[in-house]
Amino acid sequence: FWYATKANRASAKFQIQKTRAEREKTRAEDNLQLAIESLDEVYRRAITTDRSLADADSKDVVPSLSEGERHLIEAGLVFYERLAQLNGDDASIRQRVGDAYGQIGWLRSTLGEHQAARKAFETAVARYQELAAEYPKSRDYAWGLAAATKGLAWQTSSAIDSVERRQSLLKQSVDAWSRCLKLNPQDAKALQERASVYWMLGDVQSAQADIERAIECDPGNPDHYAQICRLLRNEISAGAKVLEYAEQAVRLDPENADYRVELAVILANQRKKNASFAQLQKALELDPKCVAAHCRLSRHHLRQRNFDQAMAHADQAVELNPLD
After folding, report:
1. Distance CA 97, CA 108 (A)
2. How confident is the model at residue 223 (pLDDT cuts 50, 70, 90)?
3. % residues pLDDT > 70 (the chain)
């Protein structure tokens, strides 16, 4: 009886300790998830913050991160790297590290910090190459690798680099998106992304084929129609078809100013100037800060010799986007 009682007490103590350990583990996981979500929100806000400085007093100011934002970003990357070291067997955390570096790459790129952007993208690519190699059937890791490779290729095209290096990265990006499509041939977003890389390579035919496939897979997405319009807007032989695409994009999202501008460009190319002008005016009604609409209206008024109005729209475009 004494031994049985002792054994029962030991078993009960073990269960209590196990339950306590499980609670601590759950609490730690919840705290970790909260920390990750908080950092993700910081990165998201930093990336989507309007840094055009349209309201700044000085037009010579270059948009940049504040010192506090820089410290926060660096601290976040150290945090993610440490997580990856302590949880090397957790692919989801390693994915977070890759995502974080990719986000920082795009942020640095928009700020013109090309060297830092390239370094971030290179790290993101390395992280996702490891994951994609370990999990070849994972769509998420294939997608992460494709997106990071495209970012690196895009950054290379924005910096001083050899043509061979840029072409090599673009081809790697095509291969990465092709890997995504092998896992899911109906992935319209992957088709759209690969089309943009083909376009950067100058392969208009392949880009057009991918966008047309994307339209077949996802006919209700206006982005696909707008993308093929940008691709074919100067192709005379595609005149009627490209106008149909532009009108479809507007029909699907009539409140989108960018689609209105794209339609205006197509109409202007087809010498339908009055219809083009009407679309540009509608675009500004929808979005008074639409730089493309101001630029196009400036050109329109210049051709009509309405110099005051042309200058007014040109000044507005420069004020809204002083760095372009």
Report:
1. 16
2. very high
3. 78
Per-residue pLDDT at 78 exceeds 90:
no
Chain CA centroid to CA 63, Å: 19
CA distance 264 to 278: 8
Q: Contact 141/102 with Cβ under 8 angstroms? A: no
Residue 246 identity:
A
**Cα–Cα distance measured from residue 317 to residue 89, given in angstroms and rounded to the nearest whole number:** 51
Other CB atoms within 10 A of residue 292 CB: 19
For the chain, what is the radius of gyration of the CA atoms? Answer: 26
Max CA separation in the chain (angstroms) = 107
Helix 91-110 vs helix 2-48: crossing angle, to nearest 10: 20
Report the pLDDT value the prediction gives residue 87, as an integer from 0 to 100: 72
Per-residue model confidence (pLDDT) at position 63: 47
Q: Which residue intervals of 235-272 are DSSP H helices? A: 239-252, 257-269
Rounded Cα–Cα distance for residues 233 and 42 (Å): 38
215 within 8 A of 242, measured Cβ to Cβ: no
